[in-house]
Design brief:
There is one protein chain. It contains 15 helices and 21 strands. Helix 11 runs antiparallel to helix 12. The mean pLDDT is 97. By secondary structure, it is an alpha/beta fold. The longest helix has 16 residues, at 176-191. Strand 7 (150-153) and strand 8 form a beta hairpin. The protein binds 1-deoxynojirimycin. The site of 1-deoxynojirimycin (NOJ) has 9 residues, from loops. The site of 1-deoxynojirimycin has 9 residues, from loops.
């Protein structure tokens, strides 16, 4: 490889531990469950695991509310199990990146328990407190989960800030002692041998609540540079920041190596294209492919020379991509492979969310009783109160609820899809007898093996990692096509995003490298007639 950064040709697999694999029959996925599946991750070609939080937590937001950064939640196992996982991963060449949730803690974290006791408590300033305005809230800032971002605390008669659940008080990054505690904690995990961090809503740490600044606060980049210097900067680790507020102007600042902040970020612009602009994710709008292509191309080009992109369709916060922008009925396999091709063909580090590699779909919710996530439940009752029709609310939840991503991983066609010997804490998608790992591994044409081939290509071919990206046919409303170019070599990626046949033209011939349909080894490109959801990667010859 021409670049020493190991994470550039790597592929990340995200594990949401609660729903991945349960080893002890209590219905909750755990660390030993993950250990038992390392062979599977290795088989796929995983280099890095992003582990969603396994720390001690009262679970108001399934682990994103941490009460002890140094402790493992007993639901997930012990510190010994965690050490064994890190060691076993190392033995098979996989690195673990930990979820770093430091925009907020749990209200049960000892810092907050102390802080709320009195105004002169040494931990008071670790959090953000304000007096009410003449008996009212300090201001109209809203929580991302709905309702005010301010919660009244009886003990001292002041409000504290929480941009998420009221059990997730926001940390005050202005406080130097608090930052020092975070650096110590990060160094603890680095010493334990982790490969880096995924940083939860990191673009919010520079918040200025009095000016109603939530993301991209004035000191954000200063804090990130300090973090870099005090913790991972001189280690060969990988860091990725979750930045919902990133745009092309501020987005490139994070991952420019010269600035010494992060290696890459998750920016979400392309994931917001099917919502009404300026509204919430629940306000649905059909996908416009032209817009999607434009956004990807913009980020590909902006970070081409300086910085690095993360490539993802899914996470524990997003609905399943095959149901969202593919076709989870007649063309589930073809469309899942097409979406994988679009994403893995671009420049950046690809992320796979558990189950994506076997084409897991959204859950068929029929009523609010099927949903459990705090965000979904809050939205349901809020919109009910506001007079939205039940049907519209359920339509939004069926499209976008985070719960879709949190159903049990479908390992086989047996009891609870092989996820647990007991009863799953949440739900198993009823399609598990059809869609599961066991079946995928038995079928050489499965989505799983297609992902495996894509990952392999990335490892073998520097053009996929380093090649320049150029969007083709930007105005076409059904084909997503682009060129990658590297040292005189040219690769064409052509995908029909829809069921309706489409066509695309480029002069010359292509040697087919990968496709979700049978192809001749060499194909003429003028034109290529594309079948439903057809995807082709070929080298121009
Ligand atoms: C982003 C996480 O991905 C999400 O699951 C969580 O609810 C919020 N941050 C708050 O930590």
């Amino acid at each position: 490889m021409v670049d020493e950064k190991w994470w550039k040709n790597s592929v990340v697999y995200q594990i949401y531990p609660r729903s991945f694999c349960d080893s002890n029959g209590d219905g909750i996925g755990d660390i030993n469950g993950i250990r038992s599946k390392l062979w599977y991750l290795k088989e796929l070609g995983t280099d890095i695991i992003w582990l969603s939080p396994v720390y001690s937590s009262p679970n108001a937001d399934h682990g994103y509310d941490i009460s002890d950064y140094y402790g493992i939640s007993p639901e997930y196992g012990t510190m010994e199990d965690m050490k064994a996982l890190i060691q076993e991963c190392e033995n098979c060449g996989i690195r673990i990146i930990m979820d770093l949730v430091v925009n907020h803690t749990s209200d049960e974290h000892p810092w907050f328990v102390e802080a709320k006791k009195s105004k002169d408590n040494p931990y008071r300033d670790y959090y953000i407190w304000r007096k009410g305005q003449a008996g009212n809230l300090p201001n109209e800032l809203e929580s991302c989960f709905g309702g005010s971002a301010w919660e009244f605390s009886e003990e001292t008669e002041e409000y504290y800030l929480h941009f998420y659940h009221k059990k997730q008080p926001d940390l005050n990054w202005e406080n130097k002692a608090m930052r020092k505690e975070i650096w110590n904690m990060m160094n603890f995990w680095i010493d334990m041998g982790v490969g880096g961090f995924r940083m939860d809503v990191i673009d919010m740490i520079g918040k200025v609540p009095d000016q109603k600044i939530k993301e991209n606060g004035p000191k954000l980049h200063e804090y990130l540079r300090e973090m870099n210097q005090e913790t991972f900067g001189d280690k060969n680790l990988m860091t990725v920041g979750e930045c919902w507020g990133a745009n092309i102007e501020n987005g490139s600042l994070y991952s420019d190596p010269e600035r010494k902040e992060l290696d890459m970020i998750f920016q979400f612009e392309q994931m917001l294209v099917d919502q009404v602009q300026g509204k919430k994710k629940w306000d649905l709008k059909p996908l416009e492919l032209k817009r999607l292509k434009q956004i990807f191309a913009k980020w590909q080009n902006a970070l081409d020379k300086k910085g690095w992109n993360s490539l993802f369709w899914n996470s524990h916060d997003l609905p399943r991509i095959v149901s969202r922008w593919g076709n989870d009925k007649a063309y589930r396999v073809e469309s899942a492979k097409m979406l994988a091709t679009v994403l893995h063909g671009m420049k950046g580090t690809p992320y796979i969310y558990q189950g994506e590699e076997i084409g897991m779909t959204n859950y068929p919710f029929s009523g609010i009783e099927d949903l459990m996530d705090v965000e979904s439940v809050n939205m349901y009752y809020k919109r009910k109160q506001m007079g939205y029709p039940e049907e519209d609310i359920m339509k939004s939840l069926c499209a976008k609820a985070r719960d879709h991503a949190r159903t049990s991983m479908q390992w086989d066609g047996g009891h609870e899809a092989g996820f647990t010997k007991g009863t799953s804490w949440y739900r198993v998608n009823p399609n598990y007898t059809e869609i599961n790992v066991k079946k995928a591994l038995e079928d050489p044409d499965s989505i799983f093996y297609y992902y495996k081939r894509l990952i392999h290509l990335r490892k073998e071919e520097p053009i996929l990692v380093f090649g320049r990206f150029e969007l083709l046919c930007p105005e076409d409303e059904s084909v997503f096509a682009y060129m990658r170019e590297w040292k005189g070599q040219k690769w064409l990626v052509v995908c029909n995003f829809y069921e309706k046949p489409a066509s695309f033209s480029y002069s010359g011939k292509g040697r087919v490298l990968l496709s979700n349909y049978e192809q001749n080894p060499v194909i003429g490109l003028a034109p290529i007639n594309l079948r439903p959801y057809e995807a082709v990667i070929c080298e121009l010859i």
